[in-house]
UniProtKB/TrEMBL annotation:
Natural source organism: Pantoea osteomyelitidis
InterPro entries tied to this protein: Cu_polyphenol_OxRdtase, Cu_polyphenol_OxRdtase_sf, Cytotoxic_necrot_fac-like_cat
Keywords: Hydrolase, Metal-binding, Transferase, Zinc
Protein name: Polyphenol oxidase family protein
The keyword Lipoprotein is annotated on this UniProt entry: no
Domain of life: Bacteria
Family per similarity comment: Belongs to the purine nucleoside phosphorylase YfiH/LACC1 family.
PANTHER family referenced in this protein's UniProt entry, alphabetically: PURINE NUCLEOSIDE PHOSPHORYLASE LACC1, UNCHARACTERIZED PROTEIN YFIH
UniProt xrefs under Pfam families: Cu-oxidase_4
Catalytic reaction(s) noted: adenosine + phosphate = alpha-D-ribose 1-phosphate + adenine; inosine + phosphate = alpha-D-ribose 1-phosphate + hypoxanthine; S-methyl-5'-thioadenosine + phosphate = 5-(methylsulfanyl)-alpha-D-ribose 1-phosphate + adenine; adenosine + H2O + H(+) = inosine + NH4(+)
Amino acid sequence: MADTTNSGCRSALLDSLGWVDHAFQAAGEPPPPEAAYGHQRHSPTVVLDEENVPPKSCESDGLIGVTTRPVAVYTADCLPVLIADARQHHVAAVHAGLKGALAGVLFSAVARLKALGASSDSLFVAIGPAISPCCYELGENVLSDIKQNPRVRQPVAWTIEQPHNPLAVRPQAQAQQQGIWFDLPQLGRQMLLQMGIPAEQIELLNICTYCMAETGASYRRNTHFNSGYRSRYSWIQRVGA
Ligand SMILES: [Zn+2]
């Protein structure tokens, strides 16, 4: 299990590339001062880094980095997705919660990278700490909306019984309704696979923001306990040539 208590966590897959630096920072830590990030709206909008310098100059939920400037997203339970294109040495940071994923933000980010010269097999992706099926309850009506979404082409991962998380460091979410337990990181992974990215080039960090990550990392836990939450900044940048 990754230690996210103080300094955030990293992807071994992205580290193996050798030409990117990145971090899924701990909740509440400030982003790198030169990082570009958008005013996030759970939209499919993806822009180039320069359009969000200074940060939040425009609305976007994904940024493409074509320079050495870090591109970032901030999340609480949503998926922070960092992408590196080994062909052009471009990078991307994407904020993909359930709403944004269903609106197509991962598809727009990959399409934009491909328009700039990437191919499916040149992309390496890491999905950082996010709410996981051990703690992510949804109503049946939401599940049926997900299944009917045209971007969801394969069966999605969910269970009726709440999955036990043996790695939890605090109590898992308690059921609030007669709902189901949904696997959001797997939905993100499925969408990436659907776009032709090889499975071995997608890493899930498998850290649940509700029951495993550092204190104050989960928006949903805050809604249950009024315990407070702070954004997690995740960023990626090209280093060297
Ligand atoms: Zn959990």
